[in-house]
Amino acid sequence: MVKKAVNIIACVTLITLLLAGCGEKIDKDTPVFETECISTVSFKSVVSDWLMVPSDDLPVFVEWLGTFRAGEKVKNTIPGDNQVEVRIEYSDGTFFENGLSTIRIGNTDYRITCENAPEEYLKLKLWPDPDDTETAEKQPEGNPSGKASEKRWDYPIDMVRFSNLEEFLEYLKTADENTDVANLASLEFFYYPTGIPEGYTLYKITAGAVDIGFWFLPAEDCSSEDTKLAGEAGQKHFQFISFRDKYETAGGNRITNKIIWEKSDAALMMYLPKGYSVSDRDSLCETVKYVRTDDTHAFEME
Predict the structure, then answer these.
(1) CA geometry: angle at 232 spanning 230 and 234, to 5°?
(2) In angstroms, rounded to a whole number, what is the distance separating the alpha carbons of residues 93 and 246?
(3) In a 3-state reduction of DSSP, which class is residue 29?
(4) Are 126 and 165 in contact (CB under 8 A)?
(5) E strand or H helix at 58, and its extent?
(6) Nearest-angstrom CA–CA distance, 135 and 142
(7) Is residue 300 exposed (0-12), middle (13-18) or buried (19+ Cβ within 10 Å)?
């Protein structure tokens, strides 16, 4: 047990020394996880228990974990960071747990980079199945349909999901503050992206007390839930975030694969698909503003 703990500390220490001795230039060839003598690997999300990787799939996950590297320094915490954690157990009984978004090396947090998740990862069911009506969240009282939603669930505890803009707007119109876990009954406005390139389709909306997220994938990746998951795991999506206030992550311009900018009343953020090159930043960041009306309580474009 001591030996394995020493190995893990030595690995992290090596990266720390490299950072300190090279002007904080990260060694891209040094994995952040020790991958020798792994006996089991488990994952959990904020809405699931620990799920152990089947033994037959273990070599695939060990190889994938070996691609995890320390990237840029964490400048601000972003909603959604480390919603999935990994637990690596070694043959001598020791284990190591960490989120999949960031890792602390010394006293500094770094964003994790890695290769695309294997198909076996998508089969772990870390998130509820939107087509499973037994786990779908019931719509609040007053919803005109009066039936359970097949496309929305807690995501995570204080966040709800929608499959299209019309469904989202209808929910906002009827949201009841007594049953609204995401505090959307108090929402007064939000921004919606209009500069997403042609060929991309809105496939989900995640809404919570802090922000509203709009997710877009290439149309060919929206044929089923499996293709959506695979496209998202492959980082092929645009994710636009309309914060409900001047959130603390606002500030600056282009940062790696995301753009952050501000309106007079809110911060906005755009995550770009992996490897996507921005040729016209201003066009990509075009938005419209939806505002709640006093008379009907519905949202309309300003």
Answers:
(1) 70
(2) 46
(3) coil
(4) no
(5) helix 58-65
(6) 20
(7) exposed
Q: Work out the burial of residue 31: count CB atoms within 10 Å of its CB; fewer than 13 is exposed, 13-18 middle, 19 or more buried.
A: middle
Contact criterion met (CB below 8 Å) for 71 and 26:
yes
Which pTM does this prediction carry? 0.52
Q: Which residues, in sequence order, are CB contacts of 91 under 8 Å at separation 6+?
A: 37, 38, 39
Give the domain ranges of the chain: 2-122, 159-301
Joined together, the tokens standing for residue 12 give 């992290």
Contact (CB, 8 A) for 271 and 249: no
> Could you write out the three-class secondary structure of 220-247?
HHCCCHHHHHHHHHCCCCEEEEEECCCC
Task: Note if the bond before 31 is cis, omega within 30 degrees.
Answer: no
Q: Which two tokens stand for residue 229?
A: 């998951």
- Rounded to whole angstroms, the Cα distance separating 108 from 174 reads 44
Token pair belonging to 128? 């509820």
pLDDT digits (tens, 9 = 90+) for 128-156: 654 454 444 433 333 333 333 333 333 34
124 is written with which tokens? 């772990």
Q: Which tokens is 117 given?
A: 């998740």
DSSP state for residue 136 in the 8-state scheme: S
**CATH 2.80.10 assigned to 2-122:** no
Q: Which residues of the chain carry a pLDDT beneath 70?
A: 1-28, 76-80, 128-159, 177-181, 246-256
- Answer for the pair 242, 192: CB distance below 8 angstroms, yes or no: yes
DSSP β-bridge partners for residue 207: 160, 212
Asked if 156 contacts 47 with a C-beta cutoff of 8 angstroms, the reply is: yes
C-alpha distance from residue 56 to each of 38, 59, 60, 61 (Å): 13, 7, 9, 10
Mind giving me the DSSP string for 157-206? TTEEEESSHHHHHHHHHH--TTT-TT-GGG--EEEEE--SPTTEEEEEEE
